[in-house]
Amino acid sequence: KKDIPLANFIMHEIHCSRNIEVCRYCSELIPKSEIKNHIESEHAQVTCKCRMKIEKCLLKDHEASACPLRPAACQYCDIQLTFNKLQDHEIYCGARTERCGGCSRNIMVKDLKEHPRVCG
After folding, report:
1. What is Dmax (Cα atoms) for the chain?
2. Quick check: 71 and 79 in contact, CB under 8 A?
3. Which residue ranges does the record assign to the TRAFD1/XAF1 zinc finger domain (predicted)?
4. Is pLDDT at 58 greater than 90 in this prediction?
5. Percent of the chain with pLDDT over 70
6. Is the pLDDT of residue 1 over 80?
7. Sign of CA dihedral 79, 85, 86, 90
């Protein structure tokens, strides 16, 4: 999959067909002597803590952006929760009230950022 001089093409093609294999899972070019190790280390099925089965090479991305058990911080109190519990917590947490120092009214935490505009 690279440009080579025309004079070397036949020798190059022979070398590649003997020594290089295309991975059937990710289409990467892998030396034939390493293909078994590549498949076992990169494409073996593993189980995430959320019990989803996934290829080992995709696990880090899954844990970082898709796993329902990935850590997430509440936007109101910064407590660390699992992502699947975050929405319910933020609904509850944002509905708490705090007293405004300017107007002495109790304001819901979710409205505190916009409150100074209407507080006067």
Report:
1. 85
2. no
3. 78-120
4. yes
5. 98
6. no
7. negative
Rounded Cα distance between 23 and 10, Å, is: 23
SS3 for 66? coil
Amino acid at residue number 49: K
Q: pLDDT tens, 25-41?
A: 998 999 999 999 999 88
CA 118 remoteness from chain centre: 39
Beta carbons within 8 Å of 77's beta carbon, 6+ residues apart? 93
Name the DSSP letter for residue 36.
Answer: H
Quick one: DSSP state of residue 63?
A: H
DSSP 45: E
The position carrying tokens 């917590």 is: 89
DSSP 72: E
Token pair recorded at residue 21: 């294999």
Cβ distance 48 to 62 under 8 Å?
yes
Q: Give strand ranges (E) for 57-110.
A: 71-73, 80-82, 97-99, 106-108
> What local confidence, expressed as pLDDT, does residue 119 receive?
84
